[in-house]
Amino acid sequence: MSLSWVREGQGLVGWGCAARLDTSGADRFTDADAWWRQLCGHIDVDDAVGLPGCGPVAFTSLAFADRPGDSVLVLPEVITGERDGVRWITTIGDAPEPDLEPVRQPGTVSYSDGRLSSTAYRQAVTEAVRLMRESGGELRKVVLAHDLVANTSEPLDERFLLHNLAARYANCWTFAVDGLVGATPELLLERRGYEVRSRVLAGTAWPHPGRTDDEIAAELLDSAKNRSEHAYAAESLAEKLRPFCSELSVPTSPSVLRLRNVLHLATDVEGKLADTPDGSGLLHLAEAVHPTAAVGGTPTEDAVPLISELEGMDRGRYAGPVGWIDGAGNGELGIALRCGQIEQQSTAGAGSGGARGGRVRLFAGGGIVPDSEPDLEVAEVEAKLLPVREALEGVR
Hints:
The chain is an alpha+beta fold. The chain has a single domain (3-393), classed as Anthranilate synthase, CATH 3.60.120. Helices cover 28% and strands 34% of the residues. It has 8 helices and 21 strands. The chain has helices at residues 28-40, 118-134, 158-168, 213-222, 224-241, 282-289, 300-311, 374-393; strands spanning 3-7, 10-15, 19-23, 57-61, 71-75, 78-83, 86-91, 109-113, 141-152, 173-177, 180-184, 187-192, 195-205, 245-249, 255-258, 263-273, 297-298, 321-326, 331-335, 339-345, 358-368. The strands form 2 sheets. Strands 1, 2, 6, 7, 8, 9, 10, 11, 17, 20 and 21 form an 11-stranded antiparallel sheet that branches. Strands 3, 4, 5, 12, 13, 14, 15, 16, 18 and 19 form a 10-stranded antiparallel sheet that branches. Helix 1 (28-40) runs antiparallel to helix 6 (282-289) and helix 3 (158-168) packs across helix 8. The model is unreliable at 348-353 (pLDDT under 50).
């Protein structure tokens, strides 16, 4: 099992499993926080480095919704880390040897409809637009997702995906936790002591023939629809985080984040925690802010139940928090976007009678507002599926 959280060549990679928690439901954040605190209380730590991410570290991926679904924390036996030019290795118990086998290619990749096809996704968007327009402004945004199944002719090696995603999307957080692999541009929360920050993304455009990135970026900044959608997301995050902070800085205007496949409106929110660090651990903060309007909707309490009704599928851990947390409650949690959940990773030989290839369920979504156009929303999610599709196909 690969465990990874890397951005621009820095981050954490782990292997082995010294301890693991599987949890689900509305109490998943509380259960995870309690389990992690108790476990860290029984670990004797020798840490000569003293940076966030040193000592015991759990990689975590939590389900999007409160209904039963898999959420996990994994304490690796070995963790390698790099931050600001400092490198370290953390071992727990007798450290296993790393996997030195060559990275395997997935062979031929083919695609089939997931649980919500492109046609069904368009219908869901159309219905969401109708409901918002009929609400008289009470329901302002619903975030809907679409999935796609990729089948590989050879066993699927997570490292192949991670390497390709990191190479093409170095400014995203490339992650792998319990079979969920992706590259997210959106940071739900980072905590270092009293400092906390978040990167909110909402409002998207994508390259078009005959249009430069500068022209597309200018149109994105001038788009009332996208600016409004982005404001919902930034306000949602700030409103939920502000009670924990003595200071909170929220820029009045977004910037444009440029990726290979899309451009996003982005706002970096920064704050200083008012409570003692131990009283505002990362998982506790994440429970308070998840889901933001960027992945849920506005108002969240109305939009999230509607998501389940319109999509008619279980998102699992897509759009949930993913990342790492250390023994002091520091860490980084992104939002699990541009990702795939590996559902089959067989290594059975051709003559063994077992399935040889792999299967991964890919996800992408978009924020729907009353003036959204269904055809454009379908085009947007297809653009957002490109990172994992191209990583699977080995596109350079």
